[in-house]
Specification:
Layout: H1 2-7, H2 9-26, H3 32-48, H4 55-76, E1 97-102, E2 110-113, E3 121-126, E4 136-141, E5 147-152, H5 153-156, H6 160-180, H7 194-198
Parallel strand pairs: 3-5
Antiparallel strand pairs: 1-2, 1-4, 2-3, 4-5
Helix pairs in contact: 2-3, 3-4
InterPro entries: Membrane_assoc_protease, NA-bd_OB-fold
Organism: Natrinema salsiterrestre
Protein name: NfeD family protein
Length: 199
């Protein structure tokens, strides 16, 4: 029995590698493609070049091809931009935006997030009122990723930060007006008007 497995090791590696690649196609992001490529590569070399069918040689080939596949997989990041293929926690959903796919109330509802990943649909609740289907929402509390607390973007309006920015902008316009009126300039030095100079 063991002799028949060792004699068919290249074929076994080829089949297992193909199965792993199919599983990766069914469930992208599982990283089975790297192992699948390593096994298929070693299996093909063993099938095409029978002297290389030694178990030790196949093991070394599997490691070498696997290392090369892992490097290529990481370098080219086939599932998105650099670092975006990494799994993130539910806290990363806070502040995410999306839209309502099923009317959201305090007890039920569903939203689709724009950056929701592989399965962008989430159960959602609102703190008060109702948010109708198709309305844009923002996540206030990710709730562990199971049930999001959302609020309509149009209902949020202006917050304390927006008001502070508006005050700062209004305050930064004042020195310019004073300097134009003959008052203290921006750099703090007094400026004289033509009438004051002639006295």
């Amino acid at each position: 029995m063991v002799e028949s497995l060792v004699g068919n090791a290249p074929l076994l590696l080829l089949v297992v590698g193909l199965v792993l690649m199919v599983l990766e196609a069914i469930s992208p992001g599982a990283h089975l493609i790297v192992i699948g490529i390593a096994l298929v590569g070693a299996g093909l070399i063993g099938v095409l070049f029978p002297p290389a069918a030694n178990v030790l040689i196949l093991a070394v080939l599997t490691l070498a091809i696997g290392a090369a596949a892992a490097y290529v997989y990481r370098e080219f990041d086939f599932y998105g931009g650099k670092g975006t293929a990494q799994t993130s926690d539910s806290d990363s959903l806070s502040g995410a935006t999306g839209y309502v796919t099923e009317t959201v109330t305090t007890r039920s509802g569903e939203v689709k997030l724009e950056e929701g990943g592989f399965a962008p649909y989430y159960s959602a609740r609102t703190t008060d009122g109702t948010i109708e289907e198709g309305e844009e929402v923002i996540v206030l509390d990710p709730g562990g990723g199971n049930v999001l607390t959302v609020e309509s973007v149009s209902a949020i309006g202006e917050d304390e930060i927006d008001r502070a920015l508006a005050r700062d902008k209004a305050g930064s316009d004042e020195p310019d007006r004073e300097a134009a009126d003959g008052g203290e300039s921006i750099d703090g030095t007094d400026t004289e008007t033509e009438t004051e100079k002639s006295k």
